[in-house]
Design a protein that fits this description.
Elements: E1 4-7, H1 19-26, E2 31-33, E3 40-44, H2 48-58, E4 67-69, H3 73-79, E5 80-81, H4 85-94, E6 99-105, E7 119-123, H5 128-137, E8 141-142, H6 157-164, E9 170-173, E10 184-187, E11 194-197, H7 203-207, E12 214-215, H8 217-220, E13 245-250, H9 253-269, E14 274-278, E15 290-293, H10 300-316, E16 321-325, H11 333-343, E17 348-350
Parallel strand pairs: 1-9, 2-9, 4-7, 6-10, 11-12, 13-16, 13-17, 14-15, 14-16
Antiparallel strand pairs: 2-3, 3-8, 4-8, 5-6, 6-7, 10-11
Helix pairs in contact: 1-5, 10-11
The structure holds threonylcarbamoyladenylate and magnesium ion.
Threonylcarbamoyladenylate (TXA) is lined by residues 35, 37-38, 40, 64-67, 100, 102, 114, 117, 119-121, 123, 143-145, 182-183, 185, 196, 231-235.
Length: 351
């Protein structure tokens, strides 16, 4: 299969430019498209064959459910059942936007899309191309992140091509996805909302709208928890991982730079390709031959936006050992660290 690339300017595009993509979706094919979080790999959410193609293209375990993307509030009632008051309040406040909500599913949603669960994940993206694609195709779009399972999520069309060229029908290239980390996921199928994956919409933001918001303990853990299962099936898999060994160094920033310099020097002396993930503020303090800045601590959104790009870059550079600063103290930091810790397979050292 040849994967077509369709360039679209999110600020200025015509319906005609999305026509072929819409036809592919209507006919059960796969189209990767930009959203405001990361690129998604889309297929018709009500077509079980499209769902199985998505799992196959990504190499994704079929017990890991997909998010159903909708464009209008009335679509929610077509796919979700028993919509709770909290669920509706959160949807009305944060949609369209980077929030996925889990509801009880309606029968028309195939169980292959929900990984056999009786609930369904629903998101209304804010990205103009994503919304127009859903509206114009007339299908709800099931879309996981458009990466090979286990790889960092794609934040540019080039990343999608890198992973999925020849495995999907089309990629819509709409430039960089803005936020750079996946949507926050909140289970609103029960009495109290439970955060299953942290993201741009933080707990504090959710608490302004709904009471008693809890966080799934698995995602806050800094060690592998074998005693409890993650409530979002996808959170149990190793994820976002670069090919080299990533270690996160925590503590006072001066001590962190000193410790990273020491660890990196040890590896370089042994002839290993070694890299440091720093920030704009600290990048000149490292002696390692490869030092890359993820973004600026003064603009934490730049750190979220830089995360997956830098993890992929580590692979292009062939880094065997990667030492990274920690990004825990900011509002978005929890979401960034959640991904980093998994990419590092929970390998954290104190400076
Ligand atoms: O920002 C995003 O959410 C992106 C864009 C494309 O919208 N999508 C995305 O999809 O990140 P994916 O498949 O990479 O992550 C979806 C996560 C998985 O961890 C999955 O287990 C969880 O959502 N999930 C989906 N349906 C669920 C359900 N019914 N109950 C619990 N978790 C669910
Ligand atoms: Mg994913």
């Amino acid at each position: 299969m040849v994967t077509k690339v369709q360039k679209v300017n999110p600020e200025d595009f015509s319906k005609e430019e999305l026509k072929e993509a819409c036809d592919i979706l209507k006919n059960g094919g796969l189209v990767a498209f930009p959203t405001e979080t990361v690129y998604g790999l889309g297929g018709d959410a009500l077509n079980p064959f499209a769902a199985s193609k998505i799992y196959k293209a990504k190499g994704r375990p079929s017990d890991n459910p997909l998010i159903v993307h909708i464009a209008d509030m009335e679509d929610l009632y077509k796919v979700a059942d028993g919509i709770t008051e909290n669920g509706l309040k959160l949807a009305k406040t944060f949609w369209p936007g980077p929030l996925t909500l889990i509801f009880k599913k309606k029968e028309i949603v195939p169980s292959s899309v929900t990984g056999g669960l009786l609930t369904v994940a629903v998101r209304m993206p804010a990205h103009a191309v994503a919304r127009e694609l859903i509206r114009q195709s007339g299908v709800y779009i099931a879309a996981p992140s458009a990466n090979i399972s286990g790889r960092p999520s794609p934040v540019r069309a080039e990343h999608v091509i890198e992973d999925l060229d020849g495995r999907i029908d089309m990629v819509i290239d709409g430039g960089s996805a803005g936020i750079g980390i996946e949507s926050s996921i909140v289970d609103v199928s029960g009495a109290d909302p439970v955060i299953l994956r942290p993201g741009y919409i933080t707990k504090a933001m959710l608490e302004k709208v709904a009471e008693s918001v809890y966080t799934d303990p698995v995602i806050e853990s800094r060690v592998i928890r074998k005693d409890i299962a993650a409530k979002a099936p996808g959170m149990k898999y190793r994820h976002y991982a670069p090919k080299g060994e990533l270690v996160i160094v925590e503590g006072d920033i001066q001590k962190v730079t000193a410790k990273i310099n020491m660890l990196a020097e040890e590896k370089e002396k042994k002839g290993c390709k070694t890299a440091v993930i720093a920030t704009n503020e600290t990048k000149d303090k490292y002696k390692c031959s490869i030092v890359k800045s993820i973004g600026s601590r003064k603009h934490e959104a730049s750190i979220a936006a830089g995360l997956y790009d830098i993890l992929r870059e580590m692979d292009y550079l062939g880094a065997q050992y990667i030492y990274s600063e920690s990004f825990d103290n900011d509002i978005l930091g929890g979401a960034v660290m959640n991904r980093m810790i998994k990419a590092a397979a929970y390998h954290i050292v104190q400076a």
